[in-house]
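B., you asked whether I could sanity-check this one before it goes into the benchmark set. Here's the sequence:
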Amino acid sequence: MNRKLTAGAAAATLAFTLSACGGGSSTDAPADPNAVVNVATRQTPSSLDPCAGNSGYDLTYLKLLYAPLIDIDPATLKPLPGIASSWEFAGPEKLTFTVKIRPGMTFHDGTPVDADAVKASMQHCLGTGLVPVPSITGIDVVSADTVSIRLNKPTSGMPGYLSSRLGFIVSPTALKQHGDNFANHPVGAGPYEFTRAVPNSEYSFARFAGYRPVSDPAPKAAGIDIKIVTSDTAMTNALTSGTADYAFGIGESATPPLERNPDITLERTPQLGFTAIVINTKNSPVNNPKVRLAMEYALDRKAIANAVLNSNTGTPAWSLYPPGTTFHDPQSDNAWPYNPDKARQLLAEAGYPNGLTIRGISAALPPFSTNAVVVSEQWKKVGIDVNFVNVPGAQAISQFVAHNAAELFSVGWPSQWSAPLNYSALLGPTSYYRQNAEPNPDITRLIDKLNDTYTDAEQLAVVKEINRIVVAQAEFIPLYHAPAVAAYTRRVKGVVPSLNGSPELVYLAVS
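And here's what the prediction gave me:
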């Protein structure tokens, strides 16, 4: 299943990708294979076990450690061979998904990457419950290089699942040795192996000499050291002082001095993902669709993006895919135009003519925490009083999901190239975020229909059907798309922008 960007998205890429004034491009000196790339970011992983974490920030780290069964081209979002050299659906109803394993690969600990290892890894992942694929009824080892996945209903999103957490294959030897402590001793078959970590402070990875390049190149650096910094100012200082070669997840407010620095290159890359407010729709008063619709109409999304990003680089989000992408639905654009009077009318019709109070949680990290402040200000103008409590990332998710401690959650959604996976993960009955949401049977039915389609045109038609229901029922509150901002010094080579939002650190080297 090919996923591509249209010409419009390619133009957007060019428009969003900016270099610093003065042309801070890399030097002509060759990459030093003995050098370590020093990286700075505010984005901390929740776990180095691909199926134990719940943060989108994990993926940047996981892609260093683990080779996926199916890879994704960062520039085109086209599926590429990974550990799997080929894959296909079989049977009249496509209820078998067969994967061929590339020969000769090993994990960092020397364990062979074979069909038994793939089965053990997938069973571990499904067993955690964080990556539910209920249609999988069994995983069979057909031969040393072939795995067959049995399904009880069509699941066209399987390639998407196997390009992310479920497909990041872990060493069965290390998993057996470390058990529940595997996240502190992670072993994969990716280009870099884990060396050490100081949680929430520093994560170090060393080149895996035994890595056999698949879609990603052989690692060009001796290692990748990622330091967690506390602010955009700290990232700027790290770059300008030379203690960091590359920084990602930079807030727009920190970009002006970087743009003025002739020794720094600043890049903005469009993302599939967006910021959003997720809703526990079983809870009162947000179990009333008119309350949710009032919240939608009360928001001026462009003003929110401009205020939070301190720039004009954000665009309003109305559905799961931005303009220019294969599954963008133009019929959903401007689905809830800013209309405070309509918001007040909907509140009155819902039985709240004098306003109401709603609980909120926000991940304590920009832009999510800043989004919470700005949207609450706009909601207050129509009588919706939301006091967002800032909670550290993984804990915030747990409070919202496991403890049902709020009706609203300010967070980000990374989006996936696979429409069946994306809609299942965000809006399906097994969505991690919707454990306290009222299932929508019409959306569930359409997600099943989406999983029974295998061409872009067929899937886009179903996506539009789902979006019409989402718009009418206000199942979640998308806010805006913003480019991923990264910056790097003249020493850096091999920068590859990624439309999936997380940087491709494996390509980096320094002179």
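One thing to flag: Residues 275 and 412 are 4 Å apart (CA to CA). Otherwise nothing jumped out at me.
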